[in-house]
Specification:
The protein contains 12 helices and 23 strands. The protein is an alpha+beta fold. The chain has 4 domains: 174 residues, Ribosomal Protein S5, domain 2; 114 residues, GHMP kinase, C-terminal domain (Alpha-Beta Plaits); 72 residues; 86 residues, 3-Layer(aba) Sandwich (Rossmann fold), CATH 3.40.50.150. Helix 1 packs parallel to helix 2, helix 3 crosses helix 4 and helix 6 packs antiparallel against helix 7. The protein is elongated.
């Protein structure tokens, strides 16, 4: 009897490093597999093992003796079959030639071999249950020298999309999650591998020498991971993708803090191009090798000034201007449930409208609005940075004209960053004094334009007006026809 087992690789969507301190993480199994096969040997005394991890290698050794392949021998130590065997372990699909792709090849190979080993042992008459997630995590940590959360093992065992959190005991709590509608992913390999044990050890050493800084970073990353997991459970596509982008920025700052190449120069360059097109981009796992992009399938509802109840042409023009970004194809069909306006004061009126976008894959996104929603309805008073951090809406246009200290201007820009979209425009009337908007435009991958105000025959020398924007992106405003 020939037994075959396979386990998928993974990409970590959210939670790298912070998961080690109890934060939630989200991991996605991918359609590249490690495969193990086992069957009785044609020699009663010797075992044969062929590995493709990734280079082909063949071994022959006495039954019950080590093979020389650590993953295989770790599993064999727990229960040895009563008869000699011949096996193959292939994780080549998780490599690019001889280079690891950063998809959790060792975890996938361990899970595939452990599954085949248990089935083969039972076929030989041994009482050998299927390996548990907890047991496999322990084995994988032993293989990695004691390090690792086990999140890659969870992806290989459970498949699909897994929300993962470590309990105080060090063992995991896992649950299945469905990705928000209209969010797609694409993986990118930058051409060089990263050492997960090495980077994690580097991180642990930093936390011991910089405890206060490490605690603050852990809280920041943990909050972004919590927000992303909450958005995934609530099918909130845009908030989910924004959380991914936020976590990616956190990993960049973590790498700078600990002096490690978590986000390599290659990934930083690719990330700048991605942001120019409204795509969230982050490295996956401990860093350095693999990254992925998240595409939010979203509906864009332009502004609308107050409607007169009889202005049918204006209403129809507004409905026709609603567009949607699409994950699977160049076009998405947008429909709405508009039935007419309710009576308002005089000849005015309003309506609640729900727009539904459907792409070529059948994915759907919805957006609900009111015809009055785009009017200015409230003024927020207080500390601008704190208010901006809590602001719940997307930011179409932002003008810095408050406290002109460089650090405060920067804090405002950072506060609105998660709420920007490709059409957003960010401006400052203080660009003659500081370079903060220029620095921010580079950070978010935007073009920067500077105007020098020159008042005529006036004592005031004029302001320096800076603008950060994406060329070619059109913005709609409430009074635009």
């Amino acid at each position: 009897m020939r037994i075959r087992s396979r386990a998928p690789g993974k990409v970590v969507v959210l939670g790298e490093y912070a998961v080690l301190d109890g934060a939630p993480a989200l991991v996605l199994a991918v359609d590249r597999y490690a495969t193990a096969t086992l069957e009785p040997s044609d020699d009663d005394d010797d075992c044969r093992l062929r590995t493709l991890m990734p280079e082909p290698s063949e071994r022959r050794f006495a039954n019950g003796r080590p093979s020389g392949v650590p993953l295989v021998d770790l599993v064999a130590e727990k229960s040895a079959p009563v008869r000699a065997w011949s096996g193959t372990l292939d994780s080549a699909p998780l490599h690019d030639g001889t280079t690891k792709l950063g998809l959790g090849s060792s975890a996938a190979a361990l899970c595939a071999w452990a599954g085949a080993w248990a089935a083969y042992s039972r076929s030989a008459g041994l009482a050998c249950p299927d390996p548990s997630l907890e047991g496999l995590i322990r084995l994988h940590r032993e293989f990695q020298g004691g390090w690792g959360s086990g999140i890659d093992v969870a992806a290989s065992v459970c498949g699909g999309v897994v929300e993962f959190r470590l309990e105080p005991s060090g063992m995991p709590r896992v649950g299945s999650v469905r990705l928000p509608n209209s969010v797609g992913f694409a993986g990118i390999f930058a051409g060089r591998s990263a050492s997960t044990p090495g980077l994690v050890a580097h991180y642990r050493a930093w936390t011991e020498t910089h405890p206060a800084e490490a605690a603050a970073m852990s809280r920041r990353l943990g909050a972004a991971a919590e927000a992303g997991c909450t958005a995934a459970r609530g099918n909130a596509a845009r908030a989910f993708v924004e959380a991914i982008a936020d976590y990616g920025r956190g990993l960049l700052d973590l790498g700078i803090a600990i002096g490690a190449d978590i986000v390599t120069a290659e990934h930083r360059e690719i990330g700048e191009h991605a942001r120019r097109h409204g795509v969230a981009y982050k490295v996956s796992g401990a860093g350095g090798s693999t990254a992925f992009t998240g595409f939010p399938g979203a509906i864009h509802v332009p502004g609308l000034s107050q409607l007169l109840s009889g202005n049918t042409a204006q209403i129809n023009a507004w409905l026709a201007r609603v567009t949607a970004t699409d994950t699977c194809s160049a076009n998405a069909t947008v429909t709405n449930d508009y039935k007419g306006l309710t009576a308002g004061c005089g000849r005015t009126g309003s309506a609640n409208v729900t727009f539904t976008a459907t792409d070529a894959c059948g994915n759907q996104s919805t957006a609900a609005t009111n015809t009055n929603d785009t009017q200015v309805r409230r003024i927020l008073l207080g500390d601008s940075v704190e208010l901006l951090k809590k602001f719940p809406e997307r930011v179409d246009f932002f003008l810095h004209d408050s406290d002109h200290r460089p650090e405060y201007e920067w804090a405002e820009f950072v506060a609105i960053e998660p709420r920007l979209h490709p059409g957003s425009i960010v401006m400052s009337d203080n660009s003659q004094q500081t370079s903060k908007l220029l620095e921010f435009s580079k950070r978010i991958g935007r073009s920067f334009l500077y105007f020098q105000d020159q008042p005529l025959n006036h004592w005031w020398p004029g302001d320096g007006i800076g603008a950060a924007f994406l060329p070619g992106q059109r913005c709609y405003f409430p009074d635009e026809k």
